[in-house]
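Example record for the data management plan.
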Amino acid sequence: MQYVGYALVLLHIFLFVWSTGGMIELISTKVPWTSYTNPDFPKWLLPIHWGSVIITSTGFLLGYFTQWSKTPEFLLATYTMLFTICVIETFGFMTSPTKYFAMIAELVTYTAILTLLFKHKYFVDYFA
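Corresponding structural encoding:
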């Protein structure tokens, strides 16, 4: 299960880099990569979108490396925030034909991670 922890660290490093890039796209007029921010999303929503992912990923990484006992609860709060934003984006702005599949996949991912953090002995002991 320790390797699952490493996989979660890698996932949250990726999310941090991805969201930092998105935030740079938001505040910069030109970036050296092809923009990946969804053009369907209004500008006012993007700081909330990218900022929430930065908060979540940073909190997980700090919590994991310091073995902060409140890391699972922190992720429950921030994943709830991310999923709420996802619902708003899906029903309010997205035009992709796979938008509902993506929303459900996001929910399943958050649920699986939270179940591991709250229920699996390795993570319960790790964050004790």
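Summary line stored alongside the record: The chain has one domain: 2-126.
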